[in-house]
5-methyltetrahydropteroyltriglutamate--homocysteine S-methyltransferase
Amino acid sequence: MTSHIVGYPRMGPKREVKFSLESFWDKRTNADELQKVAKDLRVSIWKQMSGAGIKYIPSNTFSYYDQVLDTTAMLGAVPPRYGWTGGEIGFDVYFSMARGNDTLPAMEMTKWFDTNYHYIVPELSPDMKFTYASHKAVCEYKEAKELGIETVPVLVGPVSYLLLSKPAKGVEKSFSLLSEAYEQLEDALSGMNALVETYFSDLPADAYKAIVSLKGVSAVGLDLVRGEKTLELVKSLGFPSDKFLFAGVVDGRNIWANDLEASLKTLKTLEGIVGKEKLAVSTSCSLLHTAVDLVNETKLDMEIKSWLAFSAQKILEVNALAKALTGEKNETYFFTNAAALASRKSSPRVNDEAVQKAASALRGSDRRRTTPVTSRLDAQQKKLNLPVLPTTTIGSFPQTVDLRREDYVKDIKEEINKVVKLQEELDIDVLVHGEPERNDMVEYFGEQLKGFAFTVNGWVQSYGSRCVKPPIIYGDVSRAKAMTVFWSTTAQSMTSRPMKGMLTGPVTILNWSFVRNDQPRFETCYQIALAMKDEVEDLEAAGIQVIQIDEAALREGLPLRKSEQAFYLDWAVHSFRITNCGVKDTTQIHTHMCYSHFNDIIHSIIDMDADVITIENSRSDEKLLSVFREGVKYGAGIGPGVYDIHSPRIPTTEEIADRINKMLAVLEKNVLWVNPDCGLKTRKYAEVKPALTNMVAAAKLLRTQLANEK
């Protein structure tokens, strides 16, 4: 019996790599200093796994930005615009592809399957010539080897890389493609043990048959956590006697302690099918999606802490299960685990009968505003009196490091006033308060809701150096008091222009948290929706006329299997509508969505029944607009982003005006809004001011042109 880890977090226990990356980008440190921080982290992770008794330790799971971008570099698949002429790809080309530079935009970024991780989308073309241009995987393997640690280099598979790239929409996604790819690799794999990992869902029977019969492949990894039917699949279809089965029984996507006895039972069932010598205990996927180590947590109380397992603890779980299968069961470890599970199940902190009853009443209902959106927009325009092509931003503004000190309220008010005055100077039409009081768009609300717990260092990589600290939803959710009314009304008192109340929607709070696994996700989402509904109605009562309820993560919760998607979209969209079903027609409800593919769920987005939706557009080559070119009618307000905020590059007025013109070709001028792609928290004021100046100038230029066309 052996043990295996698919992958590990790569920012460091206290985000050491994040800070080193940002220091390098700001030219405060050099490449050698960045590489030393990265190497120190890799070495510590390999030694940690080796010391814990893990046999199959991964390498090449570290990345300076993204593993798919690493694959693009390895293959030399650099888009021509970046001017790469050959040789080993260095940081200049690598980070230009990831972040853009002064003259070139970055490559497209989108969600990694149904996670909150983002990858850089490969740009492939028929005339692309692949060449081995980055030796990173080999170098890191040798680096571990020098420590006396044998590792398993991890690569993005050829079929996955192809299907994750831009031309994937024209590729026939058949299992013959998979078989052909590995037939081509058969000679190269000869003499090696190749492991093909699958994760995030069940495999359909035909896909399972294709995977386990691949030529040149020695082992197959299966997700037995999200793949709830996988065990039955193996039992019914069997498993080839010449391959190893890597059983992903330890959850790589969540932070709850493993039910060790249940996992051991599953492993023994598999052992009866494939044999003890052919079975390895593994994580369900890379631990990239979980926090690093509970040892670093001082904020969590001991009871909740006993219910959890971060990445470091999951390594121990994998090893304990592997040892138990060889007759070396640690009875104390298993007993402690069982006691923690029982404590969680019976804890009064978890269950609130009144909340459960209110959420249960929503099943089968259809909460929505009664007046059609076109009539509501007319009523709102009479009250707001906005110009054609109204301008706004998505919510956050750059945060300065000297906030949150002694005179907190005074400092926050001064920062809000600065943001308000700047927007007035820029002549933006609908303002935001900049969110200086908020640490994170989900954590901020979680801290004020019952049923949430919080970490100090529970950081998870979202993209590049960007990390989030997901709250932990451990119990039933309710709101004790208003959460945002004070700051929103304070900001509104500083201006005569409309000030948006800024909320995070229930689906996004759900999808960007570590969610309890002891009840269906939709039950938890309905509970959050009811809490946010109270907040929306309090904002309206306080005089806020425009309320934005962000659902940035609505699509990332979409199940990978099409057969499961309709049910998810039904309760997810319903949860959003619940939050605002009780407001007046004159109250304008906005929502925002960021980096993802939206065209295939556009009808669900329409069914959200928001008055205005702002949505990422610029970094995805304006693919969003194609859905409207294909005839989809959208009667509500819509603001496809006019520039990419994840790049330091400042767009010109002409460039933004060109984007707006493309939008006007498929959207009516009376529904179109002008806004950036996303919030501005990660940018500097030196970038934000000129970019917004150009955005407003472009909107005014187009207004003049439209007026002259009459």
